[in-house]
């Protein structure tokens, strides 16, 4: 029957090559013609029972092996390789990967091994570049960075304060006189001045978007997945875009980004910055923050915003006439992927890092919704106050997994007494010892270590095993 035919051309070719035989020599040993063997190797003829038995007799091949399905492991590994942006689009489909893996499995395995070595070397080079940058050396790599990386690096390394945007949106807020209903005031502004109506649509009508502006019908559609604070932010984003697009564009140009895509990404980020400034006007927000000891939940309730909005806003309070505590923030997911880093004076990567697994921002996922407060100490004695909590993403349906991230807000411990969190820490409580990242940390016997430090050789001793998973020499 057709389904019982065995086509094993690539395997026969591998057997022949392993023996160092020509097709003529192998055909003679098997008692068939070279042309027939050529057809078999090209999978144009199936193996007969007599030929399988002859292969088993001459080359000691287990007949069962010839009937086994091709192992898809090599093809899957090759698929991982060709998913890399450098190779994306080079192959038309998965079938060619299967054919490569079947026809030349050793070459495929070698290619996969070489690719994985390349990725490991690239990661080490990135770590080394970061180490050099933190030491004050210019570690820029040749070639162009991706626009996303360019924008992220620019925003993370400079103070998260834009005076021109602050002044503009504060004037807008004063002209609105919103009272306790900023959302209503912004809806009226969009309707009366820009002829834009706001509508909330159900998930089945707008399944793939959180917001969409229909320029033809002049309507701003918002997803019902958004909670009230996030709906307010989306409306504020549209308002500041229409009112002060030129101010935001001027701020973007001042960065000197190298591509139109980078400028577009930066415009999105600064428009969101402007929306937060409109929702929490600088003067009123900074004054309230000082009075309540920077209590994030109290500020969120007072300004009808979310915990996330307040954390982002606290990193922007650097107006010369009324500066707040110079906070910095970090947002990650449960896998440790970094989404945002910002700081009132730039994110302090050189002093704080943010990648230490002992930070409370990573422990927060085990205690969703709880605010975790602690002081942390770097190896050089620098100490920080940190506040961490999980954030819930868009409202998910029953068959979807909730997107949960965690945010860390930090400042130098010298400012702790100005915050409600610092005043409630137990007097004399020891600080948690952390490092910038495992690759740059030389703390001995750290139970949380995930990688050896780049600055020390591994301590390989058959007689002694330390507490850390990666022992290293002093």
From TrEMBL:
<dbReference type="InterPro" id="IPR018653">
    <property type="entry name" value="ScfR_C"/>
</dbReference>
<dbReference type="Pfam" id="PF01381">
    <property type="entry name" value="HTH_3"/>
</dbReference>
<dbReference type="GO" id="GO:0005829">
    <property type="term" value="C:cytosol"/>
</dbReference>
<dbReference type="InterPro" id="IPR050807">
    <property type="entry name" value="TransReg_Diox_bact_type"/>
</dbReference>
<dbReference type="InterPro" id="IPR010982">
    <property type="entry name" value="Lambda_DNA-bd_dom_sf"/>
</dbReference>
<dbReference type="Pfam" id="PF06114">
    <property type="entry name" value="Peptidase_M78"/>
</dbReference>
<dbReference type="GO" id="GO:0003700">
    <property type="term" value="F:DNA-binding transcription factor activity"/>
</dbReference>
<keyword id="KW-0238">DNA-binding</keyword>
<dbReference type="GO" id="GO:0003677">
    <property type="term" value="F:DNA binding"/>
</dbReference>
<keyword id="KW-0805">Transcription regulation</keyword>
<dbReference type="InterPro" id="IPR001387">
    <property type="entry name" value="Cro/C1-type_HTH"/>
</dbReference>
<keyword id="KW-0804">Transcription</keyword>
<dbReference type="Pfam" id="PF09856">
    <property type="entry name" value="ScfRs"/>
</dbReference>
<dbReference type="InterPro" id="IPR026281">
    <property type="entry name" value="HTH_RamB"/>
</dbReference>
<feature type="domain" description="HTH cro/C1-type">
    <location>
        <begin position="12"/>
        <end position="66"/>
    </location>
</feature>
<protein>
    <recommendedName>
        <fullName>HTH cro/C1-type domain-containing protein</fullName>
    </recommendedName>
</protein>
<comment type="similarity">
    <text>Belongs to the short-chain fatty acyl-CoA assimilation regulator (ScfR) family.</text>
</comment>
<dbReference type="InterPro" id="IPR010359">
    <property type="entry name" value="IrrE_HExxH"/>
</dbReference>
């Amino acid at each position: 029957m057709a389904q019982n035919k065995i086509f094993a051309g690539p395997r026969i070719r591998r057997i022949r090559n392993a023996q160092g035989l020509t097709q003529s020599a192998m055909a003679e040993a098997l008692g068939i013609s070279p042309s027939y063997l050529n057809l078999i190797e090209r999978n144009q003829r199936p193996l007969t029972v007599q030929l399988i038995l002859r292969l088993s007799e001459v080359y000691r091949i287990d007949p069962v092996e010839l009937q086994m399905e091709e192992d898809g492991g090599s093809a899957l590994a090759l698929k991982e390789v060709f998913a890399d942006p450098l190779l994306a689009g080079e192959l038309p489909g998965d079938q060619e990967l299967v054919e490569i893996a079947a026809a030349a499995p050793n070459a495929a395995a070698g290619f996969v091994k070489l690719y994985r070595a390349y990725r490991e070397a690239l990661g080490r080079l990135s770590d080394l570049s970061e180490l050099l940058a933190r030491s004050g050396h210019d570690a820029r790599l040749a070639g162009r960075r991706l626009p996303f990386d360019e924008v992220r690096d620019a925003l993370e390394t400079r103070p998260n304060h834009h005076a021109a945007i602050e002044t503009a949106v504060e004037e807008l807020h004063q002209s609105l006189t919103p009272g306790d209903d900023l959302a209503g005031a912004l809806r009226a502004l969009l309707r009366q001045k820009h002829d834009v109506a706001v509508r909330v649509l159900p998930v089945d009508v707008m399944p793939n978007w959180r917001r969409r502006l229909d320029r033809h019908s002049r309507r701003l559609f918002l997803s019902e997945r958004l909670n009230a604070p996030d709906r307010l932010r989306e409306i504020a984003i549209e308002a500041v875009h229409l009112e002060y697009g030129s101010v935001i564009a001027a701020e973007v140009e001042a960065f000197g980004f190298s591509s139109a895509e980078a400028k577009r990404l930066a415009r999105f980020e600064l428009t969101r910055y402007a929306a937060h400034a409109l929702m929490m006007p600088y003067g009123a927000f900074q004054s309230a923050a000082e009075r309540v000891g920077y209590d994030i939940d109290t500020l969120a309730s007072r300004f009808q915003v979310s915990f996330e909005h307040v954390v982002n806003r606290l990193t922007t309070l650097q107006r010369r006439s009324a500066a707040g505590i110079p906070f910095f923030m970090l947002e990650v997911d449960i896998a440790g992927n970094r989404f945002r880093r910002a700081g009132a004076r730039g994110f302090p990567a050189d002093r704080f890092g943010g990648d230490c697994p002992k930070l409370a921002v990573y422990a927060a996922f085990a205690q969703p919704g709880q605010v975790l407060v602690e002081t942390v100490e770097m190896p050089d004695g620098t100490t920080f106050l940190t506040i961490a909590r999980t954030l819930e993403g868009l409202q998910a349906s029953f068959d979807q997994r909730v997107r949960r991230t965690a945010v860390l807000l930090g400042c130098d411990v010298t400012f702790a007494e100005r915050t409600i969190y610092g005043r409630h820490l137990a007097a004399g409580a020891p600080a948690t010892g952390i490092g910038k990242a495992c690759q740059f940390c030389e703390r001995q016997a750290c139970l949380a270590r995930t990688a050896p430090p780049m600055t020390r050789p591994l301590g390989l001793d058959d007689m002694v095993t330390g507490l850390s998973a990666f022992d290293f020499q002093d």
